[in-house]
Amino acid sequence: MPTYVGAQVIDMESNQPAVGIDVALRLPDGSTKKGKADADGRVRVDADLTGGGYTFTLETGTWFAAQSRPTCYPSVSITVDVGKDEDFLVTVLLGPYSYTTFRGRESVDPRPGWLKALS
To answer: Would you state the pLDDT for residue 87?
Structure first.
């Protein structure tokens, strides 16, 4: 069973973490955890998690507006299918008019707790 599911968001224009972007994570049981990306643009949930579909929703419109930057995406939702025995990190490269995602790996930075937990 997974012990963490998380996201890292990078601003493609500045090549910097999307610090403070609001992220909601809907779990397979329908419950939702919310948080803000930390100084590294990372957010995660730690728990005894089940496999299944997890949906990340990034509040991109609010985040870009706070920087007086336009965007055509008021929010971005990404659903991933997580196996019952795997941890999962999705990386989002975010621009005002585009975004792309890929599966990342937490093991690139082994420091404990390097992703800010969702509450």
So the answer is: 79
